[in-house]
Amino acid sequence: MSIAVLGATQSPASIRPIAKAYPTGPAALLVEHATKRFKVDRRKPPVMAVDDVSIRLERGEIYGLLGANGSGKSTFIRLVSGLLTLDAGRVEVFGHDLVREEMAVKRLINRVSVDAAFFKKLSPAENLSFAARLYGLDSGEARRKAALIMARLGIGEKRMGRPVEQMSRGMQQKVAIARAILTSPTLLLLDEPTTGLDPRSKLDVQTFIEELQADHDATILLTTHDLAEAERLCGRIGILAGGRLAVEATPEGLKARVAAEHGLVPTLESAFMAYTGRSLDDDVEEGEAEPAE
Amino acid sequence: MTAIQRDVRAGYAFVERNFNLTKRYWGWEVAFLVYAVAGALSVSLIGQSVGNRRLLMSLVVGAVFWNYLSVVFQSIGDTITWERWEGTLEYTMMAPVRRSVQLLGSALFAVVYGLIHTAVLLVVLALFFSLDLGHANLGAAAIFMVVGSASLIGIGMLAAILPMMSVERGSQMVFVLQSCLLLISGVYYSTDILPGWMQLLSRISPATYVLDAIRKALIDGASADQLLPDLWPLLAMAFVFIPVGLWGFGWAERYAKRTGKLKRVG
After folding, report:
1. Which residue from A81, A134, A293 is facing B97, i.e. has the nearest CB?
2. pLDDT at B265
3. Is A5 helix (H, G, I), strand (E, B) or coil?
4. What would you measure as the largest C-alpha separation in chain B, in angstroms?
5. Cβ A126–B257 below 8 Å, yes or no?
6. Given this model, what pLDDT does residue A103 score?
7. With bands split at pLDDT 50, 70 and 90, how would you rate the model's confidence at A20?
8. With contacts defined as CB-CB under 8 Å, which chain A residues touch B92?
9. Would you list the DSSP string of B155-175?
10. Is B24–A85 a contact, with Cβ atoms under 8 angstroms apart?
11. Per-residue pLDDT reduced to its tens digit, B85-143
12. A:B CB pairs within 8 Å
């Protein structure tokens, strides 16, 4: 393992092994100086949603992106997904430039967002079949694969034919994850995938993410408000504040750094508060307040 | 897998998905069909009431085939609105699918769906009014439905841009555009009675030529040769509107990605 895949700031003692991160070949995700502003009012200057952010993910790595509501996490995920255009900077996925080779990049990535968006009247089978066809899978292969993934996530075949709207929030999120996995993405973008889930569903999803990394060699960019989840899953963590990447390190590195630099208890919560300038309670109370788009 | 196979599969995804949605919303489908039948009968009964068989046929053709054209236009025009409503727009836009494939897949479903609607309407009205279609040139009418669909699909694509650019106003504007097409295309009357400026507008509506040709084919049994003056404008409009619609859609997608308007709303 190369030090290059780890946070540049931590000491060797704080290096935590990153399971299956292979720093050979092109980066799984390379973002250089990504910048995005939104004009929300003609009379006011644009809002800086993502400000000169650069990150590099190696194949097989899980990278956590933390930040307060409105810090630019979802905007960053959308930029990497190609759902927003960059004002400056560039994005590369496994050596393919997002702008020049858009279709090649699209075949390599998929995304799960906090809101499990489906055609709610359609069944999981119908929603998954639609997604599979969009990504070029044939229907037989898609059905077999979907049944396997859904079974692994605890959703039986009986449920596959009922409308999604009849499922619980946790079930819907599992179907959303199945939809993303079905297309075999080599880079998976998970935007708060466990937000709003009950503890059991959350645990199921977290375990599944670990399996994806271990068994399928997936590279994952994960945004979350759950610090325990970030600590459990992520090899490295970046904290966004006001659209800028305030700090980046392994979980252990972050704890060590906040203790050394700020004299705080070495926890991720301390690091979150120190580098975002706010507490978790502030974040929860404020609610979802993404930069206006 | 070749690029063509991939495109066919992706295009079919939209046909299958829309079919599944139609199946799941079957109650609404029945309700819409009943409304369409009742509306067509109500309008056509005006012709019956004045005892004018030609007027009756003219109104039947107007009601039935406007229903077809409006179903096709609305299905394509609502491509984005529907996805926005369900919250799936970002997922569809992220998929490795060319916009032309997405729009043509949606258009194919719209045409098949419209044809089924129209067939039901036509059968009900033919039975209700004991229509004699013995002299009708059904082949010519079918050709004009196909060619007319192509030119209307282009306008539908342009209309689909609106909900992408303006989240709240877009679908309202699609509705207004559809209403304007109804007004200027001579659905229930000849375009000759319209004010001069409206007659000019009627010439750029594909529906004007489709309805005129189908009336001639079904009521007078006009041959394909006699209908050529209506065919050329439709072919020209299809040739212009589809590429312009695709280009416009691409432009609107870039605009939406620049300004963040793909984000879920509704």
Report:
1. A134
2. 56
3. helix
4. 62
5. no
6. 95
7. very low
8. 134
9. HHHHHHHHHHH-TTTHHHHHH
10. no
11. 888 999 999 999 999 999 999 999 999 999 999 999 999 999 999 998 888 999 999 99
12. 97
Strands A219-223 and A62-67, by their bridges, are parallel
A260: confidence class by pLDDT, cuts 50, 70, 90: very high
Structure tokens at B88: 């799936």
Chain B residues closer than 8 Å to A75 by CB: 260
> From the list B13, B20, B96, which residue is nearest A103 (CB)?
B96
Cβ contacts of A286 within 8 Å, gap of 6 or more? A68, A69, A70
CA distance B228 to chain A (A): 40
Q: Domain A1-94+219-293 belongs to what architecture? A: 3-Layer(aba) Sandwich (3.40)
Q: What ipTM, to 2 d.p.?
A: 0.89
Q: How many Å lie between the alpha carbon of B219 and the closest alpha carbon of chain A? A: 43
Task: Choose the weakest-confidence range: A16-20, A221-225, B2-6.
Answer: A16-20
* Percent with pLDDT over 70 in chain A: 86
Cα gap B57→B79, rounded to integer Å:
33
A39 lies within 8 A of chain B by CB: yes
Q: Which residue of B has its CA nearest to A104?
A: B96
CB atoms under 10 Å from CB of B253, counted, come to 18
Q: How far is CA A51 from CA A35, A46, B191, in A?
A: 5, 12, 58
Which strands, in side-by-side order, build the sheet including A88-93?
Answer: A47-57, A29-38, A88-93, A96-97
Q: Position of tokens 């946070």? A: A7
| Substitution target from B23, B89, B91 for chain A, most A beta carbons within 10 A | B91
What ranges do the domains of chain B cover?
3-259
